[in-house]
Design a protein that fits this description.
six-stranded mixed beta sheet; 2 domains; alpha/beta
Length: about 220
């Protein structure tokens, strides 16, 4: 029964691909013809978002293929710059976006009900010494700031504040990459933090001068 349900889901996805192909490949001047000739992709914005299935940056922004360069991981975290490890998937993608694609904007996109941040704050549904536990430690300083300010509040309140604080941590971390700092100074690369409240459908932007998040009026 589970196998049948799985097959049905794959068939639904394939039907979705058919619609996608009809939209972007079947027209007189298909979009992918432009995206695969000449210089190829030239996105202006890098979005570092969460792997959460409800928070697809392209869907949220109604972006077309080729507009966004997207990195997705658990809790939309940016590790600090370092060269001592063996594997640097997120760091490699940031490097490619900034140096090879010369993106003009970097958006760190956090969100409400983030499972990775909840794992960090509460240790719920987390495997001891597993990959998730080690990864979300990147935001340990965000957790520490939240506990210092809001100790005694409910888990929901703590998680929401940590979702916001972790964006600030990632902004600080991405600015430890020398090539990011160089791009900020030499060609005006913009780095910003955005929070998507998927419960209310609102976006908040981090204001570095005020050190707070403010609603984006649309």
């Amino acid at each position: 029964m589970n196998l049948d349900m799985g097959k049905k889901e794959i068939l639904r996805l394939m039907a979705g691909f058919r619609k996608f192909r009809d939209k972007y490949f079947a027209n007189e001047h298909p979009l992918y013809q432009r995206l695969t000739t000449g210089n190829g992709q030239s996105p202006k914005t890098l979005i570092i978002g969460c792997s959460d299935s409800r928070v697809d940056p392209a869907i949220i922004t109604s972006a077309s293929p080729g507009e966004l360069f997207i990195i997705r991981n658990v809790a939309n975290l940016v590790p600090p710059y370092e060269t001592g490890g063996l594997y640097h998937g997120v760091s490699a993608a940031i490097e490619f976006a900034v140096i090879n694609l010369s993106v003009e904007n970097i958006i760190i996109l956090g969100h409400r009900q983030c499972g990775g941040i909840r794992a960090l704050m509460t240790n719920d549904s987390i495997r001891p010494n597993g990959f998730v536990e080690q990864w979300v430690r990147i935001a340990q300083d965000a957790k520490d700031r939240v506990l210092a300010k809001f100790q005694g509040d409910s888990d929901e309140v703590l998680c929401r504040h940590c979702e916001l604080e972790s964006i600030i941590t990632s902004i600080k971390n991405i600015k430890t990459f020398p090539f990011v700092v160089s791009a900020i100074q030499n060609r005006g690369l913009a780095v910003m933090g955005i929070y998507f409240d998927l419960e209310s459908g609102q976006l908040l932007e981090f204001d570095e001068e005020a050190n707070s998040f403010k609603n984006i009026d649309l």
